[in-house]
Design brief:
Layout lengths: L5 H4 L17 H8 L4 H6 L6 H6 L3 H4 L1 E3 L8 H11 L5 E3 L22 E3 L7 H8 L7 E6 L10 H8 L3 E6 L15 E6 L30 E6 L3 H16 L7 E5 L8 H13 L1 E6 L2 H4 L4 H4 L1 E9 L7 H8 L11 E3 L22 H10 L5 E3 L15 H5 L7 E5 L6 H6 L4 H4 L19 H6 L6 H8 L5 E5 L29 H6 L8 E5 L8 H9 L5 E5 L10 H8 L7 E5 L4 E2 L1 H7 L7 E5 L4 E2 L1 H10 L5 E6 L3 H15 L7 E6 L5 H5 L4 H8 L15
Parallel strand pairs: 1-2, 2-3, 3-4, 4-5, 5-6, 6-7, 7-8, 8-9, 9-10, 10-11, 11-12, 12-13, 13-14, 14-15, 15-16, 16-17, 17-19, 18-20, 19-21, 21-22
Length: about 700
Amino acid sequence: FFSPPQEIVSGESEEESNGVNLMEFSDEILLHILSYVPCTDLVLNVRRTCRKLATLCLDKSLTHTVLLQKDYKVNKDKVKQLMRDIGKEIYQLNMAGCYWLPSSTIDHVTRCKNLVKLNLSGCHVTSLRLSKMLSTLQHLRSLAIDVNPGFDASQLSSECKATLSRVLELKQTLYTPSYGVVPCCTSLEKLLLYFEILDRSREGFMLSGQLMVGESNVPHYQNLRVFYARLAPGYVNQEVVRLYLAVLSDRTPENLHAFLISAPGSFAETGATKNLLDSMARNVRLDALQLPKAWINGSGLLQHLKFNNPFYFSFSRCTLSGGHLIQRVINGGKDLKSLTSLNLSGCVHCLAPESLFRKAEDDIDSSILENLVVSCCNLRHLNLSAAHHHSSESIGSHLCQLLSRLKHLLSLALPVCSITDVAANVEKPPTASNLVPQTFGRKVRIGIQTYPRNLADQANQKIESSVFWALMGSLRFLETLEVIGSSFSSAMPRNEPAIRNSLPPCVRAQSVGDSEVAAISQLTYLQSLTLAQLPNILTGSGLINIGLQCQHLRTLSLANLGMMGKVVYMSALMDMLKHCKCLRDLRLEQPYFCAGAQFFQALSHCSSLQRLCIVSRSGTLQSDAVMSFMANCLEVIMCHMFMGESLTVCKNLQQSIVRSFQADRPALNVVIFPLLHEDLTEVIRDVPMRHLDEITLFKSRVAEEPPNLWW
């Protein structure tokens, strides 16, 4: 693309050419085009093609910020050359998730004397290397690092600590109990903490949440504006985060405006945390809030907290009722136009007036949702998943009709049972497909209705009249959509053995199938799609429509569609994949999935594919087909397959892939392992956090964090 003909290189014009001469564009247009090219390619390749591009490629607008975080082709030598050529021009450097680069690569960052922002999350950095590097970065104000076992703060030099004392933003991922560099950062305004500490060592010993010897220094929070902590499952993570919070409970920063703690499972409130929350209620006005469910459930905390211009709320997994939501958060219909992101995932009573005598499956009160929609009319991210939000048959508007008023939505997560037409459920008698048991075992032979495969024929069936079809038509600019069964749970949780049995889908969800999937094809700008536990998928015909219409689709996650004993949508999926030219991430979770030659041949049409994850109980694979796929798809750098094959088959295939392709793909990460093997959790702990968090583990990601939490 950027290899002009020899005449242009020598300065001669191509008057007679009928084609467009790239060099005739204005500098502004060329700079805009070049901004889409990875910086390594610009500096090391493109700028060598001609004099004009040599000048433009070094323009400050292109070298000011260097993003290497998903440049999977970059290696140590390229980084070294890049820093040598433009190091002094770089003010922001993002190397997050570059797990394949050796730790010595970090030494070259010292050439970037003017760095203001540096992200090294997921990179291998020792205490001594960190000290040496930070000693030279006197202008640094934003830093992201990992704290691994063996980290020793006593090895940090005085020059390094001087740099840290000027840092205003710190993101720290902890893999061992430690304060890391927090005590050295005396001017912190934003602190993001990710706790990924395991309860047991590789040798099987229980770990303690006590900090390492010599880490008695306490954090300095007096200037803190944003505090965020995300905990992975495990008791040790809870112990360590309490040590970080203890300082906050003594004296709450006056300028604190965002306080967020994301903790799975039970994270009990203590006297110290209660004192902290009481102090916050008295002294601060918040713009963003997220708390563990135990800290909110049954307390009057929300009634006392004061908010300024809130932009993010998360009440995930709380028993907060709709009445409390309206009264205490929305303040009886208060104007909340500032709110752009709301996470009510797993908040089973949030659309009901009270929760005391209510069952989770009871109908919602549409007036609560209507009040929410009117008050928060500028919502861009909304998560209502992991709950039964059933619209009433006779009272009020349907949930989909109310959500269609949120014209600014960019991402949306819904439970499957919330999108079904109430009238259709009432009038339509049970079909054979509705009666098929959603369990493993003997398959039941049923008559399968023939579904049309193109959008026009689907329209003839008048599926446009459904409330979900209308919702999809009204949210034309939606980029992320998740439709997840309210009782769905992945077969591969974080730190536990694989789940062998799944809960049946909600009764209201039994009619959701191919026509609803076809409705999604109206989302022209869709980039990420997750569908899980849609029981009435008969052919998967709607997937083909999505492949044809949603040409911007980059991430696709499908799980437990249709009957559990057979992959009924395989043919449609293969047809769909032939049209997904922009697809980069594909995750499939389905029992009895056959990853054979036909599947991988269809997947080879996805020329942009980078990451593939397949999770399948009793699933099978063909090693030759996998090897052929890897050879044809040169961009693939992650292949995770957790199937029903033997350990020997899995190990042999994994070794073959690594041996054949690792040299040309430095970022290649391959994990092929039996899903039900007892050592699965040990294998998972070695997966780079970037892949584990973004694709391998299933979770709802809509409104998971505040927008623009980190750059």
